[in-house]
Design brief:
Layout (H helix, E strand, L loop, with lengths): L15 H11 L13 H23 L10 E3 L7 H18 L25 H14 L2 H26 L4 H12 L2 H5 L10 H15 L3 H17 L1 H19 L6 H9 L1 H21 L6 H6 L9 E2 L11 E2 L13 H15 L5 H18 L5 E2 L2 E2 H8 L13 H27 L6 H21 L8 E3 L8 H9 L5 E5 L11 H13 L2 E2 L9 H10 L5 H9 L4 E5 L7 H6 L3 E6 L4 E5 L11
Parallel strand pairs: 2-3, 7-8, 7-9
Antiparallel strand pairs: 1-6, 4-5, 9-11, 10-11
Helix pairs in contact: 1-2, 2-5, 2-6, 3-4, 3-20, 4-5, 5-6, 5-8, 6-17, 6-18, 8-9, 8-10, 9-10, 9-11, 9-12, 10-15, 14-15, 14-17, 14-18, 15-17, 17-18, 19-20
Amino acid sequence: MLEIGVATWPLRINIRWPMCFMADTLSHRSGSGSPVRLTARAQKAVSALVPLILFSAVACWATWPLAAHPRSTLPLGTEDVPVVPLFNVWVQWWNVHSIGSGIVDFWEAPIFAPNPHGFALSEIQCATAAVAALIWWFTGSIVAAYNGVLLIALATNGWCGWRLFRRLQLGKLTAILGGSMMVTLPYVHQQLGARQLVPLGLVLCTLYQLDVIRTRPSLFSGLLLGLYLSLQYYVCSYYALFLIILLPITAIPLLGYRIASRRSWNALLISLVPVLVIAFPIVLAQSQYLSSFGFKRDASDFWKGSALPSDYLLSTWKPLVPFPGIGAAGSPSAIAAFFPGTIKGALAVAGLVFGLSGHGRRRWVVAVTCMILVAGLMSVGPRIRWGQVSIQDIVAHLVPGMAHVRTLFRFGVFVQLGTVILATFGLHYVTVLDRTLRHRSGYKVAARSKIAASLILVAGTLGVCEILPPRQPLFTVPPLEPFPQWTIWLRDNTPPGTVLACVPFSKGVTVRGYVDDAMWMYWQAAHGRRIANGYSGYFPEPFLAVQREMKRFPAPESVDELRRIGVEWCVVQQGLGAPSRSHLARAGLTEIYYDEISRVSIFQIPKAKSTPGSL
């Protein structure tokens, strides 16, 4: 049974009753009328399920009203436009589509046509897409699958945090509050529009497995460590690369003298096997494809994508408990806000002080503190220089893939995650003080215990909800099914290899300029044809050349450019700044189909006129 209790009533929280209810529901009665109890293993499984249900409720509350409209809306987080959420819906579709077709053309995503290897320009997110495929099959909605994965990721963040805290023998209530703080981590909700940045469960599982190796090193524990790290690349490659840097910094103080033992070395070395088998082939292929495009980040890219030290004194939303010197995000030079919250910060300081003072878990306190410091330095790395060399330059030469990472400020999520771990330790030390008082005799000891219990409940609850958006901004997505008529026409009247140019074409410059392209990518889930448009973290140079020409569409030069890259059809959305149907007809394009409901026209690109000397 799962029972959460602190001190004495009235501040005692007991959730045995849902466990008993579930046990009675799952058990059957014998002929004598007495219930048959669940086995110990089944009770343990149900006990682990209750926190997951609780964290799911916290996730729905923190993102409300998303759970009320899961089939028709996408959360934006702090995004101004729905480009990134729509792009991630497309990534989810392409993964599921590739699995269905046998992963033969996995890298040949139908964007930026005719450029090859279009999917290598994106976060692949295969692991989350596998979960999405099940939800999509069950609900019949690609948007519901996207939102379902997001809510599951938030709940899993809390559950994996809870498992880590319970392994470290923290109290049940303390672990529940710590897990809930993982669910409402401010940076995650700031980046909620970029779903690949939401899941932190595998990061916490990796830390969990490090502790297993510390206490019981074995080949199996090493394999699990490597498996978690490998799967992290299939969820978010950014976090996987960052973990490669942060794990040694965390493992050395955590393992201590045990790192020199043969069993520990065996476990750590065997962890490389899953990495080499599962992650390395994908990393190698993606790196080769990126290199074939000639991508190379320069110093200015890293500088723009790094955080400022002052960003750690910025809060995305107004803190529930104000703190002097903390400003609101919105400065032109600020690209993220990393202030974790006044309560979490105070609890983290308490956890650090008590942990270093010898009250237990000193290794963990030192390890997490090292992770926070290194992650903070890496987030501002390009700004820390010795002559012409920065921290980023050094790391880029040592860690494969880091030379392509521009948004180094995302290291800040590990600062907040480490702060929550220390804050949960701070809550635990309130319990330690409470237990110390219980062994002392004196006046009003029971009252002091109640005060300590009140402190845990109030501080933990405030830590959970102190920095959250007042209401999650949502983007209403046009329904994919039933399929619009123009998508059905394309699917039924064009061969699979057909290349389309969708107008309005991307305007570029900023993310806002790719709203139309993201929507055209969304409609690909209905018609499945290749498009010359696209959006991703990288843009091929040939695509940028087409983008420049399309600013003059339907000028003859732009039509010639479309013809050169193999475009056969133009799909034009009327009323969005695109040329009118009559204008396109005068330019020589032939309208083949018009969807009156969607106001979408399909024009055929005329073939080049032959000249007398062309033969």
